[in-house]
């Protein structure tokens, strides 16, 4: 008879044996699955570690993950060497492998979140590199993108240019023609061509201009190659580094380079030579008013033929079947003929007639000279353009003409920030402070094709009157025209424009100036006479200096100056000593056009100017604040602010007690705002945008009882907002768009009785505070502008009759990240 206990024991033994056999069969598949898992994670972990270093992020979490992956791989390597006769140990080995996998699962849940995190960090790292490049380059937008232009009537030239560029071999191609013949338009258009972008892995557009700065041009090439811009010690150092750069990023058939040197002026042939580095698969396209025959291949842009000219004119005059005023065909063709095939003249003339009645077309025809000669000179160009400018005055658009002339105050080939124009025109011509009238003038000049108007990024509605991403671009020839209007009688006109190269001041400023025999015999008397006579009557004084200027200013007496514009390139810059004599000064605009920030000295001179209302500083290190008792607006763009805000001995509320508006944009060293800012009770608008290191707002921000607009968009490190918002009784607009680290709104946001607009596109809020329910009690409409992800937070509040939810879809063009730069 069989013992039941023995039978049970035998059964358990058999069951255990079967489990060992089953584990033996499953061990190898488990081992291979574990190997795939750990190998897949290992490469991702290393990449995340590198990205962590790039982003200056904490490594504690990833170090734990790395240790788990390392231990798992060691276990797998060890068990891979186990022979089959040790199968009795397989269950033990499999348990250890399972324990290793479980530990990994607890840390990451699944592989996919790690993959997602890797992708997000790659995006973050890329964004950081882009932002750093933008800050170093000084091209706003400004990241340096060039807009794709329209190229109507010039298709034949475009195709010819494309064929030449696609040919093999190193070459310099010169695109030449009169000013306004379309050289820059073609050069920009070719950079957008699909075949050209497919051929050239690196595609860089650089504007040279009349007074080229070699270091800045080379810096733009570095920027175009997505490399940090070094601080060049000399022009030779810049060229040496350029050669090394081009060799490292291109010079092979897989990554050919196209460099466009646009607007190379006569006499700059030697500059082009410096860029002709002898490497294969490298082409240079030069646009110039001269042909430079020794560079070989050239394309001459002549006048458009009549059919091409009519097509271009009709486009810019908006002539179609729906046009309210359609001219007779003979009149149209006669006006086009009198524009002599010049694209610029055709464009401006068409703009002046767009939407105009028959009588204006007849008047324009009579004004335009009946050109019988075949060739069209630069003098003819100015004559035609001057007529379009004079027409503004005839049509009672005198303000528009005056404002157009002000555009010549800014450097050639540079974007002109609209906020700078608003500051000037508000004080000079009593236009309203919100910029709406200034924008009306800008739009009018745009419709007349006298200027180009661009918006680099739309973050708010136009009616919010936020213009930090709005710029004006002026054609070189039209800029020359604006300057001519201002410099015919420099000491009697409203504008005085001074360009200083090196330390060579204009002769009328420091020269002997024909002071006579006494002045020649006694230089001291000559200096006394000059200084006595050198009184500046202009309301606007604009001074441009290059990188070699040493700030050794000569004296003058600008007693009537109301606007001072300083355009600079140097790393150190002192305000002119005569600044303290500008008792009527209302607006100061200081812009550094170099690649690296400039240190400003003698800022304290501004403390004695009681009428100074607006200061705009761009790409400078803001010095310690001085007392600016009547300052109403301070704008800082791409500046270092630490010395002014953190290391200043004077409280900001004491320095600027009357401040009504502060705008801080792309100031990447800004971590916190000074607490004293909350003591400036007149403050109405506070805009802190694209300041990616800003982590917190002052706790006392609720003291700003007159604050109407608080804009914090694209402050990616902003973690929280203080719960003191109930004191902001007049706040009507709050913008937290793209504040990706902000997880919640202030608990007391429902106490903002005047709130009308809440921008929260791109935010990562987890929930809305309970006080949002109070919005239903407001008697006015509240607009919430958000994206498709954020709109889900508002589902429970859609029933509020006064709540309007709008989904904002931003159209961001990233084509320029693939090689098109300026």
Automatic annotation (TrEMBL):
Pfam families: NB-ARC, RPW8. One of its GO terms (biological process) is defense response. One of its GO terms (molecular function) is ADP binding. Residues 48-75 form a coiled coil. It comes from the Eukaryota. Residues 1-146 form the RPW8 domain. Gene3D superfamilies: Helical domain of apoptotic protease-activating factors, P-loop containing nucleotide triphosphate hydrolases, Ribonuclease Inhibitor, Winged helix-like DNA-binding domain superfamily/Winged helix DNA-binding domain. The keyword Coiled coil applies. The keyword Isomerase does not apply. PROSITE patterns: RPW8. Keywords: Coiled coil, Plant defense, Repeat. Belongs to the disease resistance NB-LRR family. This is RPW8 domain-containing protein. The lineage of its organism: Eukaryota, Viridiplantae, Streptophyta, Embryophyta, Tracheophyta.
